[in-house]
Design the sequence.
């Protein structure tokens, strides 16, 4: 296989990491909503944890994106 | 016209300042667009925050309200994450938060440069945070700070847990910096890619030119999302700093 083509395929494969990030972010917000609708009084106190969970989830997907960029531009 | 979406992240010397300012160990130092943006961010944010609260009105103006609200926001964040004795780190966390926030927001101005999309900048910030945590921990607890790496568990589990704790501690600067850098990089690349769609459709002629309004509207929506991300990443950077400092201050016992 051409090295250039292999690079492109590899970068594309690395972006599969975003699947996990998508599931994770959906889980974070879904769980927050179902919890918040059961107990709206406690919802406001958990926004910090919500945003923190969102950011931590999103980061794992972006690590995959960084790998893709490394494959494309660093090698 | 060059439509490479990565072109916006190029660090280059300013026009007219092509000659290096000085050299450190044979390495030329330039005044780059990144340095210019950082100077602007520091100047604007510190001038705004000092001048807005200078008159110290009883009924605040909009500017004074903004400065006071950001102060109370960060103070509340530190208090909830680290408790009372974390408040002596307020100047450190506030400076970090405002710097990252302003860098993100100034990067949203079309044609400017996003300082936080450079891993060099974010990694420097993150390693400074971890250094601060280590120094704080050793100053507060002495050699007992090393207990942070030894969770409450039977000894046969500790063989497994201590290396994991060590690895998770020392990958923190990497995850902290890559999170901010990758978010900014991904967002701005996406904006540039959609900008490329507008140009490609607009110059295609006929019905396709009229269709270029669709990606244009999408850019507006993504821009709004990016403004949210810009704030959120600054917030996450600051709150994770608080959480790491909390561990250094209180080790494993929860306050």
Sequence:
């Amino acid at each position: 296989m051409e090295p250039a083509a292999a690079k492109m395929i590899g970068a594309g494969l690395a972006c599969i990491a975003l699947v996990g990030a998508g599931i994770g972010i959906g889980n974070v917000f879904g769980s927050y909503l179902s919890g918040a609708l059961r107990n709206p009084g406690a919802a406001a106190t958990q926004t910090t944890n919500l945003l923190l969970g969102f950011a931590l989830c999103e980061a794992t997907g972006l690590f995959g994106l960084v790998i893709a960029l490394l494959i494309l531009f660093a090698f | 016209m060059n439509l490479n979406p990565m072109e916006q992240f190029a660090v280059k010397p300013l026009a007219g300042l092509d000659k290096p300012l000085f050299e450190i160990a044979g390495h030329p130092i330039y005044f780059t667009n990144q340095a210019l943006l950082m100077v602007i961010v520091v100047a604007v944010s510190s001038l705004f925050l000092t001048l807005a609260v200078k008159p110290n009105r009883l009924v605040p103006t909009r500017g004074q309200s903004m400065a006071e609200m950001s102060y109370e926001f960060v103070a509340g964040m530190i208090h909830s994450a680290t408790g009372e004795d974390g408040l002596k780190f307020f100047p450190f966390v506030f400076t970090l938060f405002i710097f990252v926030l302003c860098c993100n927001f100034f990067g949203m101005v079309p044609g400017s440069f996003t300082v936080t999309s450079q891993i060099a900048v974010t990694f420097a910030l993150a390693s400074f945070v971890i250094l601060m945590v280590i120094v704080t921990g050793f100053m507060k607890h002495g050699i007992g700070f090393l207990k942070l790496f030894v969770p409450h568990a039977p000894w046969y589990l500790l063989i497994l847990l201590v290396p994991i704790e060590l690895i998770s501690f020392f990958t923190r600067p990497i995850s902290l910096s890559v999170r901010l850098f990758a978010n900014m990089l991904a967002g701005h690349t996406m904006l540039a890619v959609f900008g490329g769609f507008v140009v490609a459709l607009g110059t295609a002629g006929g019905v396709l030119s009229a269709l270029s309004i669709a990606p244009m509207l999408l850019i507006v929506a993504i821009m709004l999302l990016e403004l949210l991300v810009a704030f959120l990443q600054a917030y996450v950077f600051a709150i994770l700093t608080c959480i790491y400092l909390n561990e250094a201050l209180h080790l494993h016992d929860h306050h």
